[in-house]
Design a protein that fits this description.
By secondary structure, this protein is an alpha/beta fold. It has two domains: about 200 residues, Quinone Oxidoreductase, Chain A, domain 1; about 140 residues, NAD(P)-binding Rossmann-like Domain (Rossmann fold, 3-Layer(aba) Sandwich), CATH 3.40.50.720. Helix content is about 25%, strand content about 25%. It has eleven helices and 18 strands. Strands 3, 5, 6, 9, 10, 17 and 18 form a seven-stranded mixed beta sheet that branches. Strands 13-12-11-14-15-16 form a six-stranded parallel beta sheet, sandwiched between helices. Strand 11, helix 5 and strand 12 form a beta-alpha-beta unit. Helix 4 crosses helix 5. The longest helix has 13 residues. The radius of gyration is 20 Å and the shape is globular. The two termini are about 20 Å apart. Its EC number is 1.1.1.306. Keywords: Metal-binding, Oxidoreductase, Zinc. Its cofactor is Zn(2+).
Length: about 375
């Protein structure tokens, strides 16, 4: 059976996205058909539109999602029909060299559904991050579905769905990649959705000094509400000098660059303490380069790391973070700026580019 549903499609580079009828097949072996409940509008979707991910147009956009499993194919044991799930783009293979080393969070051969969703004329769609959740239904690999145990109110779906990408990237950059310890100091450059999630992750991990850096006072105020103990507007203050002042002249134990440009990475490098850690989670533009003094890299010690999806293992991390949300220790609701429909995605891209939202969330 083929399911005719509405979805948001990017047909060509930098063209406005359109809501179109798409055809979704029943699940084959190892696949799951999911009725989408919510899907956050993420910068990655905009990267697809701009051709920054690949040239495999047309794209079915959307990936930060919750849904209900409607059907499963042969051999599926991860989920059952009727389960509420968060979708993820790291369905681990279990066979690659990372998985065999016991590090499935770095799986080098993550997989997606084998079958393709299409337009009405049969044109195959490339699903964003193998998900394509700006649609009423989508087809994914069963391993991309992480069950949510226990009840959640309908209005909570939008918040937990954001763990599917941006929030997990930020929280994981601190908890997993940065390995924050209780009592440490953390500085975060860039307080968009991912950076603000890193601030929330620092508080969740027990950091006692959390410095948020941005150029917008409204973003800094939101970061303070979510856990920042200090804020720095880098248009009026020297961010590196201020971080050192706040940390007794030493620099932060952990510095997260959630922007991904040479200027902020250099600041992050200079703002860390001896033996401190820098984590890059902001996605650089292709071809971006930076020059750092090798003697300082050696002399400062510590580590310079990149966070891939916050080094998340969805089956491990999503349920834990949902529990923290239920207990009131992680305010996921604060990240949902507005709730929109499929036809509002193009406008949501503009709001995201202007920095006026943390997340717009499509509700279906």
């Amino acid at each position: 059976m083929t399911h005719r549903v509405q979805g948001v499609v990017a047909r060509s580079k930098n063209a406005p996205v359109t809501v179109e009828t798409i055809l979704v097949p029943d699940p084959g072996p190892g696949e799951a058909l999911v009725t989408v409940l919510t899907s956050g509008v993420c910068q990655t979707d905009k990267h697809y539109v701009a051709g920054g991910v690949s040239d495999d147009f047309p794209f079915l956009l959307g990936h930060e999602a919750t849904g209900i499993v409607e059907a499963v194919g042969d051999g599926v044991s991860e989920v059952t029909v009727g389960q509420k799930v968060i979708l993820n783009w790291r369905a681990v293979c279990g066979q690659c060299r990372a998985c065999r080393k016991g590090q499935p969070q770095y799986c080098f051969d993550t997989h997606n559904a084998t079958q393709k969703m299409t337009l009405e004329d049969g044109t195959e769609l490339t699903a964003a991050l193998g998900i394509g959740a700006f649609a009423e239904k989508t087809l994914v690999a069963a391993g991309q579905c992480t069950p949510i145990d226990g009840d959640l109110a309908d209005e909570q779906n939008a918040a937990v769905g954001l763990l599917g990408c941006g929030l997990m990237a930020g929280i994981g950059a601190v908890l997993n990649t940065g390995e924050v310890e209780r009592g440490e100091s953390v500085a975060v450059f860039g307080c968009g959705g991912v950076g603000t999630a890193a601030v929330a992750g620092a508080r969740l991990g027990g950091a006692t000094t959390i410095v948020a850096v941005d150029v917008a006072d409204d973003k800094l105020e939101t970061a303070r509400k979510l856990g920042a103990t200090h804020t720095v507007n880098s248009t009026t203050e020297d961010a590196v000098a201020r971080i050192r002042e706040i940390t007794g002249g030493f620099g932060a134990d952990l510095v997260v660059d959630a922007v991904g440009i040479p200027a902020t990475y250099r600041q992050a490098f200079e703002a860390r303490d001896l033996a401190g850690r820098v984590v890059l989670v902001g996605v650089p533009e292709p071809g971006t380069t930076i020059t750092l003094p090798l003697d300082e890299i050696f002399g400062r010690g510590g580590s310079l790391k990149s966070a891939w999806y916050g080094d998340a293992l969805p089956s491990r991390d999503f349920p834990m973070l949902v529990d923290q949300y239920r207990m009131g220790r992680l305010d996921l609701d604060a990240f949902v700026t507005e709730r929109i429909g499929l036809g509002d995605v193009e406008a949501a891209f503009d709001k995201m580019s202007n920095g006026t939202v943390l997340r717009s969330v499509v509700e279906l």
